[in-house]
Amino acid sequence: MKLSSFPPSLSASYSPTPSGVIPQLKEVELTLEPALVECATEQHQQHKEQKSKTWGVFASTFVTIFLAEIGDKTQLTTLLMSAQSHSPWIVFAGAGSALVTTSLLGVLLGQWLGTRISPKTLEKSAGVSLLLISMMLVWEVLH
C-alpha cells in the first residue's frame, strides 16, 4: 500500500511532475513600472517625515509638561497623600487618572479654540493669562 501526503480525493487527480512543480504554476513574471516605484518611494518618504514630526511633537510635549510639573503643588500633594495613606499604588492610579483627565480636557478645549481663534491671538491670550496669574500669586505672597 502506497502512502501519500494528499487526501484520497486529491491523490487521484494530482500527479507530480518530475521537478515537483504543479504544471499550471510553472512561471510567474513580475514587472514594476518606474512610475509606480517612484510614487511608492515618495509615499514612503512622506510617511517617514510625518512619523518624525509626530515623535517631535510627542517629545516636546512630554519634556515641557514633565519639567513644568516637577515640584508643583500636584506633585507635592501626591507625595503627601502617598505618605499618609500607605497605599502608594492607589494614590498613583488616582493621580495618574486625574492628570490624564485634565490633559484630555486641555486637548479638547485647545482643539475647539484652535478652530475658532487664530494661533497668534491664542498665544497672546495665554501669555496675558499666565502673567495675570503670576501677578496674583506674587500679590498673595507679599500681602
Features:
143 residues, mainly alpha, flat
Structure description:
- The chain has 5 helices and no strands.
- The chain is an all-alpha fold.
- α3 (73-85) packs antiparallel against α4.
- It is flat, with a radius of gyration of 32 Å.
Structure in a nutshell:
With 143 residues, the chain is an all-alpha fold.
Describe how the helices and strands are arranged.
Elements: H1 8-11, H2 34-69, H3 73-85, H4 88-114, H5 119-142
Query: Which segments are poorly predicted (pLDDT under 50) over 5 or more consecutive residues?
Result: none
Rg computed from alpha carbons, rounded to a whole number of angstroms: 32 Å
The ordered string of helix (H) and strand (E) elements is HHHHH
Shape descriptor reads flat
Structural class: mainly alpha
| Average pLDDT rating | 81
- How many helices? The count is 5
Query: Helix proportion of residues, in percent?
Result: over 70%
Residue share in β-strands: under 5%
Largest sheet: none
Distance between the termini: 104 Å
- Number of E strands: 0
Oligomer: single chain
